[in-house]
Amino acid sequence: MPLLAFAPLLLLAACRGRPAPPAMVPALVGPPGATLFTLDPGASRAWFYLHADGPLTKLGHSHVISAPAMRGSIWLHPVLERSSC
Predict the structure, then answer these.
(1) What are 56's strand-pairing partners?
(2) Are 48 and 70 contacting, i.e. CB atoms less than 8 angstroms apart?
(3) Rg for the chain, CA atoms, rounded
(4) Distance CA 7, CA 40 (A)
(5) Rounded CA gap, 77 and 60, in Å?
(6) Is the separation of the CB atoms in 72 and 26 below 8 Å?
(7) Sequential DSSP letters for 18-45
(8) Which H or E run contains 10?
(9) Phi then psi dihedrals of residue 26, to 5 deg
(10) Are 30 and 1 in contact (CB under 8 A)?
(11) C-alpha to C-alpha distance for 72 and 21, rounded to whole angstroms
């Protein structure tokens, strides 16, 4: 019975609004030799493909997450490990 009394409070807590996005601070200096690309929120879109892995692979499934309005900068270096965003 006590659990039923708290159920509405738990549901309300789960339905709170989205937090404000963090302030964007552009990276002014990238790695030497890197090329700067600035993302346009109106024209940029990214998809992340997440595949099941590990010992429970057979029980999992893949996910696709999209980010339709990305903002920020990408520093692309010929040596990919030196790139940043």
Answers:
(1) none
(2) no
(3) 20
(4) 42
(5) 35
(6) yes
(7) PPPPPPP-------TTPEEEEE-TTT--
(8) helix 2-14
(9) -70, 145
(10) no
(11) 13
Tokens (6 digits) for 16? 């709170």
First to last CA, the chain: 51
Tell me how far apart the alpha carbons of residues 31 and 59 are, in angstroms, rounded to a whole number: 41
Q: What is the pLDDT along the chain (85 residues), one digit of tens a residue?
A: 565 666 666 665 666 667 776 666 655 778 899 999 888 888 877 788 888 888 888 888 888 988 877 788 889 999 999 998 8
Tallying the residues shown for the chain, one arrives at 85
Q: Which of 26, 29, 34, 24 is nearest to 83 (CA)?
A: 34
Question: In the chain, how long is the greatest CA-to-CA distance?
Answer: 65
pLDDT tens digits, residue range 37-59? 888 888 877 788 888 888 888 88
In DSSP terms, which residues pair with 72 in a beta bridge? 39
Phi, psi of 3 (to 5 degrees): -65, -40
